[in-house]
Amino acid sequence: MKYPKLTECEMMVMKCIWDIGEECRVLDVMKKLEEKNIFYKRTTVATYLIHLKDKGYIRISREDKHVFYYEAVISYIDYRKEKSKNYLNFWYNGNVDNFLNDLI
Fold it and tell me: In whole angstroms, what is the distance from residue 77 CA to residue 61 CA?
């Protein structure tokens, strides 16, 4: 499956959601970002979350009119596999040996 492209900031927010591993609130994502020394305002994180929803990466649910919860729809493993495969195909024409040689 081909996933919509993410900006680096969107990817960082998405990674935090995957790291949290369950439904979370904006403040939970902000806290996880702060652990990575990234300090975004609440409105900035909320904007990235809307982008992620629009791209199909997360779903948003509401407990009441002020509390929103965010949950990953796309699994971290599936996303990572696709990105790794794309990287390998682009830079190494799918040749794992060449890739491993560069790592060593």
Answer: 23
CB atoms within 10 A of CB 13: 27
pLDDT digits (tens, 9 = 90+) for 39-52: 999 999 999 999 99
Give me the pLDDT at residue 63, please: 84
> What is this structure's pTM?
0.88
Give the distance, in angstroms, between the CA of residue 49 and the centroid of all CA atoms in the same chain: 10
Q: What is the secondary structure of 16-85 as a DSSP string?
A: HHHHH-S-B-HHHHHHHHHHTT----HHHHHHHHHHHHHTTSEEEEESSSS-EEEEESS-HHHHHHHHHH
d(CA 52, CA 20): 16
SS3 label, residue 96: helix
CA–CA distance, 70 with 82 (Å, rounded to integer):
23
